[in-house]
Amino acid sequence: MTSGILIASNVLLWGAFLALAALMLGVIRQIGLLHERSAPLGAMMIDHGPEIGERSPIFNVNTFEGEPVLVGRSITPGRPSLMMFTGPSCPICQKLLPIIRSVAAIEETDVILISDGTQAEHRQFLKDHPLDGELYVVSAEIGMRYQVSKVPYGVLLDQDGKILAKGLCNTREHVESLFETIRHGHSTLQNYLKDDSTAPKFKQVTANKVH
């Protein structure tokens, strides 16, 4: 009698285990399908400053070290530039800095970090995060002209100072999306996804990445 109960309980346990395993596989499959169908969210535009396609205003300012620089045009002849609005007390900005450097190196783009705040805050920020080829500019004027209300916020300019893309950047995906939109011929990733002619192709590319 006891052995029969043990056998029955083992059968029930194995049945429950197999049922849970089948359920887990089903959940994993659904997650995979959802990932295939979901496109990454690119940097969101939240400002009302100069529009994409316009030439950026020119700002004749000094870097934090006192060197004169022309912001709004190419820093290095023939190269695009990424203006990244940041803040010395912004934790996301600090975590994003290595990512910005990595993406900019891949895209062969100059980086101008544009910040605001007290001198003491900037000195501490630069002490904790030494520059590695970027320009560091303290200017409330540039942020006001672009009407940037949240940071980190990126503005990508071509070699002639034309605004190619811009948006709030909280992740590597957001930073990369500024460059991806240019390759796709759209000002934002959201506009690209709204295009009926490109949406199926984008989904196929996403699916290929998953597989």
Task: Quickly list its features.
single chain, 211 residues, alpha/beta, five-stranded mixed sheet, two-stranded antiparallel sheet, 7 helices, 7 strands, 47% helix, 16% strand, elongated
Strand order of the largest sheet: 5-4-3-6-7
Q: Oligomerization state of this entry?
A: single chain
> Level of helix content?
40-55%
Q: Which overall shape is indicated by the principal axes computed on the Cα atoms?
A: elongated
For the largest beta-sheet, the strand count, sense and barrel status come to: 5 strands, mixed
- What's the order of the H and E elements? HEEEHEHEHEEHHH
Number of strands: 7
Tally of individual helices: 7
Distance between the termini: 52 Å
Q: Could you name the ranges where pLDDT drops below 50 across 5 or more consecutive residues?
A: 31-40, 198-211
User: What value does the average pLDDT take?
Assistant: 81
Rg (C-alpha, Å)? 25 Å
How much strand content do the residues show?
15-25%
The class by helix and strand makeup works out as alpha/beta
List the helices and strands and how they pair.
Blueprint: H1 2-37, E1 59-62, E2 68-71, E3 81-85, H2 91-107, E4 110-115, H3 119-128, E5 135-138, H4 140-145, E6 153-157, E7 163-168, H5 172-184, H6 189-194, H7 199-210
Parallel strand pairs: 3-4, 4-5
Antiparallel strand pairs: 1-2, 3-6, 6-7
Helix pairs in contact: 1-7, 2-5
Q: What report would you give on this structure?
A:
This protein has 211 residues and is α/β, with parallel strands linked by helices. 47% of the residues lie in helices and 16% in strands. The strands form two sheets. Strands 5-4-3-6-7 form a five-stranded mixed beta sheet. Strands 1-2 form a two-stranded antiparallel ribbon. Strand 3 (81-85), helix 2 (91-107) and strand 4 (110-115) form a beta-alpha-beta unit. Helix 1 crosses helix 7 and helix 2 runs parallel beside helix 5 (172-184). The protein is elongated, with a radius of gyration of 25 Å. The N and C termini lie far apart (52 Å).
